[in-house]
Design goal:
Structural class: alpha/beta
CATH class of the largest domain: Alpha Beta
Number of helices: 21
Shape: elongated
Largest sheet: 5 strands, mixed
Radius of gyration: 30 Å
Strand order of the largest sheet: 16-17-15-2-25
CATH architecture of the largest domain: Alpha-beta prism
Low-confidence stretches: none
CATH topology of the largest domain: UDP-n-acetylglucosamine1-carboxyvinyl-transferase, Chain
Mean pLDDT: 93
CATH superfamily of the largest domain: Enolpyruvate transferase domain
Helix content: 25-40%
Strand content: 15-25%
Number of domains: 4
Number of strands: 33
Length: 649
């Protein structure tokens, strides 16, 4: 499947609405494994459909577990009642830590020969503490690469019955969760003692709650000892409902807090078993208005003033705490997130990745081994290269929140499919951006004149996209950058200081309306327009013009490519004869000799080229009003466009 290289998010003016959350990834993958190990069939309702759950389903399917889609987000899993039917398999688990670690433990007791591998980043994530714990029970596990890390080979070993097993708890709670879920397969009483601090305890509580739901209550002996009773056997509960994902809820609750709100998430609330619902309490400490029901939470901005920076121990909300780092951009004063060492061993080094992205946006950031301090900038900046996501879904979703203050380009947005494939669509549904009137049309159709007049009437910003490539060519020449230097021109284009007025085009504060019409600059514009990196840079640069209260943009692909969500779309046209007469009059008024016959021929040839070009060919976009201006005055055309704009709301 082809995924976009980037997504450009417009500046969010406000946020308001209701979001139905997708199922929890943590609960979904646990439910799949427990249902597979249980006796009897289980209907899992509300299962998350994502990369992580797909990896788990694929692996269980290869192990002989029968699973049937029931429609929507519901699945039926036929439990195997213990060991897996397939005794030899090679399993690829992508970058799913929940799948890799829980299956490592379960397969250690399955009596077969298995190989487990994942994505390159998965092979950088430690698993040695879990392997050490399993080896204490006699498991036969070999590292196929670097010791302590995947990939793994698991053999059919003689498992020691019961006893005491020690496992570290200060790297990942998934080690303890995976071990606990697998221990009923031994049939013997086994005590698990956590060595050191147990981080991310709420995720362990999810594991314990679900094991009990599937018929295996775990005895607690103090804070760090858990006992799985002898004779424990998983039994299907018949139907299991997956809660909405509390970690995913954090982004929308944050939107409510920084975007006015209220924004309500449904699927988690006061009765949730997920620790990340405590994120709402952290927002409340920052001054957000929080209201909570049994299965919903609502967030809004403070009644007065801004959110305030806080210092908070994030041990109970390790995933949702990342969202606080983004919220900190909009607070008064610094925010310090403590006890986040586990970020280092996730899909990427999240402390380093968050710190780097926040600095790109203008924030001052201090990072340590287990903490992050964020001091918001006076003004946010839009990184022209975009925010790198490092193939980490949470990095992408966190930095999408920065669009509350500025347009933001998110690189590799498809990584959100790991847990929330529809995230950006949901984001758009509950946010409002500055409205856009896109006016497209062929050369000399009058779109520039009309767009500038409409912008002036409304008091909105104006973008003359036809001049953008000329400005980039002129700016590159002035910077001493060859037009054939793709990377160099792209850098110049990304930082283009352009301002458009009704009768003005300024570059770095200088009026250049005449300079960009010179023949050599026109030739340079054509050359750089063929360079992909320059087109990407200028695409984002054009989108930066979209600011409150609104934008009027004219060109050939404003509605089809640059602003596909434009509220009002206009396609201006006129007969070739009328357009040639208009161009002739413009040239004569400037003292430039012209021939109307040659102008007509040139316009016909240009129309043909523009309609047949491979990238963004000139055509009326879907939903656009077609307006033939052959017999209309400028005033009549402007009035028509304004009427359509007002009708669009």
């Amino acid at each position: 499947m082809n995924t976009p290289e980037f997504i450009d998010l417009p500046e969010i003016l406000s946020a308001r609405g209701i979001v139905r959350l997708p199922g929890s990834k943590s609960i979904s993958n646990r439910a799949l494994l427990l249902a597979a190990l249980a006796g009897g069939g289980t209907e899992i309702r509300g299962l998350l459909e994502s990369d992580d759950t797909s990896r788990m389903r694929e692996a269980l399917g290869r192990l002989g577990v029968e699973m049937t889609p029931l429609g929507g987000d519901d699945w039926r899993v036929e439990g195997v009642g213990g060991g897996f039917p397939v005794g030899r398999a090679d399993l690829f688990l992508g970058n799913s830590g929940t799948a890799f670690r829980s299956l490592t433990a379960a397969l250690a007791f399955a009596g077969g020969d298995y190989r487990l591998s994942g994505a390159p980043r998965m092979h950088e994530r430690p698993i040695g503490d879990l392997v050490d714990a399993l080896r204490q029970l006699g498991a036969e596990i070999a590292y196929l690469g670097e010791a302590g890390y995947p990939p793994l080979a698991i053999g059919a070993a003689a498992i020691r019955s019961g006893g005491l097993v020690r496992v570290r708890g200060d790297v990942s709670s998934q080690f303890l969760s995976g071990l606990l879920m697998a221990l009923p397969l031994t049939g013997a009483e086994t005590a698990v003692e956590v060595v050191g601090e147990l981080i991310s305890r709420p995720y362990v509580e999810i594991t314990l709650s679900m094991m009990e739901r599937f018929g295996v209550p775990v005895e607690r002996r103090g804070e760090r000892c858990f006992v799985v009773p002898a004779g424990s056997v998983y039994r299907s509960p018949g139907v299991f409902h997956v809660e909405g994902d509390a970690s995913s809820a954090s982004y929308f609750l944050a939107l409510g807090a920084i975007g006015g709100g209220p924004v309500r998430v449904s699927g988690v609330g006061e009765n949730s078993v997920q620790g990340d619902v405590r994120f709402a309490g952290a927002l409340a400490r920052m001054g957000a208005r929080i209201v909570m029901g049994p299965d919903w939470i609502e967030a809004g901005a403070p009644e007065e003033g801004k959110l305030r920076g806080i210092e908070i121990d994030c041990g109970a909300i390790p995933d949702a705490a990342m969202t606080l780092a983004a919220v900190a951009l909009f607070a008064s004063g610094p925010t310090t997130l403590k006890n986040i060492a586990s970020w280092r061993v996730k899909e990427t080094d999240r402390i380093a990745a968050m710190a780097g992205g926040l600095r790109q946006l203008g924030a001052a950031v201090d990072e340590s081994g287990d903490a992050l301090r964020v001091t918001p900038p006076a003004f946010l900046v839009s990184p022209h290269r975009g925010i790198d996501t490092h193939d980490d879904h949470r990095i992408a979703m966190c930095f999408s929140l920065a669009s509350r203050g500025i347009p933001v380009r998110i690189n590799d947005p498809g990584c959100v499919s790991k847990t929330f494939p529809g995230y950006f669509a949901r984001l758009a549904e509950v946010t409002q951006a500055a409205p856009v009137i896109a006016i497209d049309g062929p050369s000399a159709s009058g779109k520039g004149t009309i767009a500038a007049r409409v912008a002036a009437e409304l008091g909105w910003h104006y973008l003359d996209s036809g001049a953008i490539y000329r400005l980039a060519a002129l700016a590159a020449r002035r910077a001493g950058v060859s037009w054939d230097d793709e990377a160099g021109v792209a850098r110049v284009a990304a930082e283009l200081d352009a301002v458009f007025g009704e009768k003005s085009i300024r570059l770095a504060g200088e009026e250049v309306g005449e300079a960009i019409r010179h023949e050599d600059i026109s030739a340079g514009a054509s050359r750089i327009a063929a360079l992909p990196a320059v087109r990407r840079a200028l695409l984002f640069r054009q989108r930066l013009f979209r600011r409150a209260p609104g934008l009027v943009a004219d060109g050939r692909d404003m509605a089809s490519v640059v602003f596909p969500d434009a509220r009002t779309r206009i396609f201006l046209t006129a007969s070739v004869e009328t357009r040639a007469q208009r161009r002739y009059k413009q040239l004569i008024e400037k003292g430039i000799a012209a021939n109307i016959t040659l102008l007509s021929l040139d316009l016909r040839e240009r129309d043909l080229r523009d309609s047949q070009r491979g990238v963004a060919p000139l055509r009326q976009s879907e939903g656009a009003y077609l307006l033939d201006t052959t017999d209309l005055s400028i005033e009549e055309t402007v009035a028509r466009v304004l009427a359509w704009s007002r009708a669009a709301g």
